[in-house]
Design a protein that fits this description.
alpha/beta; Spore Coat Polysaccharide Biosynthesis Protein SpsA, Chain A; seven-stranded mixed sheet; two-stranded antiparallel sheet
Length: 220
């Protein structure tokens, strides 16, 4: 199948300084996802792409045989740069059929999810796949100075799970796609898109201090 994991780790995080290196339960954030990827026999190689010498050192200190730290260009590591810029740089240099693109700051990814999602991807012949959580909560939207319900009728409030509108939230844990399809479409999701449902705790991708506090309590 020839699957490689690709991780982007930028050094200049703003909302949480060095968020990829911050320690949770005495382990750096970077270690959670990388260690789980290393356990999976379905991942042939792990590439961590970074512009930070501190992240490079921390990653190398993990002593994971199939992990290779590679350089990320300044162009792809700016605040305004989409991840697709770095992915494109990677695909031009490394020849892998399938990319398992992982977000480091979602520390809840486990080997079982990695294996099952890869199996699902190939079994269903998807062109790309994303990780999600399932929800049936009531959604309200703002328009001007007012808010209104988006997925239910105020006069007919559903009382059971069966009657509620089920929807999916992108949790940003991982994406799977073919290199060939990425080159053509220039985005990570395209064609016949599949989805893999994860536990609700995985919603808390560490992006700000609130996320960090919640993720720290859940992971304990």
């Amino acid at each position: 199948m020839q699957v490689c994991a690709l991780i982007l780790a930028r050094g200049g995080s703003k909302r949480i300084k060095d968020k990829n290196l911050i320690k949770i339960n005495k382990k750096p954030v970077i270690s959670y996802t990388v260690n789980e990827l290393a356990k999976s026999k379905k991942i042939d190689k792990i590439y961590l792409m970074t512009d930070s010498l501190k992240i490079k050192k921390e990653a190398n200190d993990l002593n994971i045989e199939k992990l290779e730290v590679i350089t990320r260009s300044k162009k792809s590591a700016t605040d305004a740069a989409q991840s697709e810029v770095a992915i494109n740089e990677f695909i031009k240099k490394y020849n892998y059929k399938t990319i398992y693109f992982v977000q480091l700051t979602n520390i809840f990814l486990k080997k079982i999810d990695i294996d099952k999602s890869i199996n699902m991807y190939f079994k269903n012949s998807y062109d790309s796949l994303l990780s999600v959580i399932q929800s049936d909560k009531f959604i309200w939207r703002k328009k001007g100075n007012k808010i209104f319900p988006s997925n239910y009728d105020l006069h007919n409030r559903p009382l059971t799970k069966k009657a509620k509108d089920t929807y999916y939230l992108e949790n940003g844990s991982f994406y799977i796609f073919e290199s060939k399809g990425f080159k053509k479409n220039k985005i990570r999701l395209f064609g016949n898109i599949g989805f893999y449902v994860m536990g609700k705790e995985t919603y808390f991708d560490i992006d700000d201090m609130d996320d960090l506090r919640i993720a720290t309590k859940i992971i304990n």
